[in-house]
Amino acid sequence: MRYLLLCLSLLLPACVGSGGGGDIAPEVTPAIGGIAEACGVRGRALGTPVSTFPEQGKARFTLYDTNPSSSGARVFHVTGFADKCPRAIQAGNVVFGAPSVYDVLRIAGGSSVSSLVDTTYASIKRRVCGVGPTTPCPGASIDELEARTLFVTVYPRLGGAPSATLLIDRGKIVAASGG
Predict the structure, then answer these.
(1) Exposed site from 53, 104, 167, 168, fewest CB < 10 Å?
(2) Which terms are listed as keywords in the entry (predicted)?
């Protein structure tokens, strides 16, 4: 776990600055739980589309699985970044999450703002919705927030605890936290 957090902390400055990690060739995969730019990966090489965000209306982000029949670690690709460059993530499972769901889980669960992702999201939510971290985003503001913000949760293996959460805002990775 410490190794993963170290990897994420080393990748985050590159993610925030350019929208992702280091560029990789299609045949290279990041370490489990790692993320890297995969600008050369296009078309069928991305894998099978398994999720879009938002789910309704025009999809902004698409999650691709290179081996959907596998339950082991494999490469997933996420498209929709501002720089038009897909990101490769090696994991057992990757899940998109909406801000409204994140709020329900955090607020209803009584979780406090504790990670870089939580703190960064609270700041974005305050600007867009005008509310604090323990208050749900109201009405039309949630639509605006969900049009620009996405959580990506990375699981090293199916059924396991998450190893990382990425926060994407306006097409760029703005925060990453382990666990």
Answers:
(1) 104
(2) Signal
Residue 31 contacts residue 49 (beta carbons within 8 Å): no
More confident residue, 136 or 124: 124
Residue 96 lies in domain:
2-178
Question: Taking a C-beta distance cutoff of 8 angstroms, is the pair 65, 47 a contact?
Answer: yes
What are the backbone dihedrals phi and psi of residue 95, each rounded to the nearest 5 degrees, phi first? -130, 135
Tell me if 167 sits within 8 A of 174, measured CB to CB: yes
SS3 35: strand
Burial class (CB in 10 A: 0-12, 13-18, 19+), 154: buried
Cβ distance 162 to 153 under 8 Å? yes
Which residues, other chains included, contact 49 with Cβ-Cβ below 8 Å and sequence gap of 6+? 62, 63, 64
Mean pLDDT computed over every residue of the chain: 82
Q: How far apart are CA 26 and CA 43, in angstroms?
A: 12
Q: Whose CA is closest to 141, among 87, 95, 103, 93?
A: 103
Q: List, in order, residues 6 or more apart from 102 with CB less than 8 Å away.
A: 121, 151
Residue 70's nearest CA partner among 52, 50, 92 is 92
Q: How many domains does the chain have?
A: 1
The model scores a pTM over 0.90: no
**Tokens 């607020």 identify what position?**
107
